[in-house]
Write a structure and sequence with these properties.
Layout (H helix, E strand, L loop, with lengths): L1 H30 L14 H20 L6 H34 L5 H30 L4 H31 L10
Helix pairs in contact: 1-2, 2-5, 3-4
Length: 185
């Protein structure tokens, strides 16, 4: 893993330094009363945070799973496919739920459209589960049984950390008198 780590770890370090500088600049702007051109625009976009977190997950997974040099090049695109599949399915689900939310609030209530959206949600959930199963199967082809088990536990730990970080960011933002980031992407 010497070649892989010799490339990935410096990249992660640079990314971390850029994140820290970006966040520090945002804190300075916050202390000076400004938060960007619009006055209320976030310093770091949700997409940037997602990308940084994906990179963090990759590095942590590499260490947690003890991936060999032969495994890593096969693991990387499959992990990215898993992340992309989750993101795509979550975005599609959010769109259907937003449509349902609008229908529920609409006057007069359109039962036929609501049933159509509920059917679309069920179909989406079924398709999303199948997509995830396929991406997990592809990922599992690269990993041995111990690594597969470690990966599933690792995912749960990462998800808890992500929620904890979002809650802390929200708390800090509310302590500073600013609205915090939304947990829902």
């Amino acid at each position: 893993m010497k070649l892989t780590r010799s490339f990935v770890l410096p990249c992660a370090l640079v990314a971390g330094l850029l994140i820290a500088a970006h966040l520090e600049a945002g804190q300075d702007r916050g202390r000076q009363g400004g938060r960007g051109a619009a006055g209320n625009a976030p310093v770091v976009t949700p997409l940037e945070l997602e990308r940084w977190f994906d990179s963090y997950v990759l590095l942590q997974a590499q260490d947690t799973l003890n991936l060999s040099d032969a495994q890593f090049p096969r693991f990387l695109p499959r992990l990215k496919a898993l992340q992309d599949t989750r993101r795509r399915n979550l975005q599609a689900r959010r769109q259907v739920l937003n449509a349902l939310g609008r229908l529920v609030k609409a006057t007069p209530f359109d039962e036929a459209q609501t049933r159509d959206q509920l059917k679309a949600l069920r179909e989406l959930d079924t398709r999303a589960a199948e997509d995830l199963r396929k991406t997990y199967d592809a990922l599992d082809e690269v990993l041995d049984a111990v690594q597969q088990a470690r990966f599933r536990v690792f995912e749960e730990v990462v998800e808890r950390r992500k929620i904890d970080l979002l809650l802390r960011a929200r708390q800090r933002a509310s302590d500073a008198g600013r609205p915090g980031p939304s947990i829902v992407r």
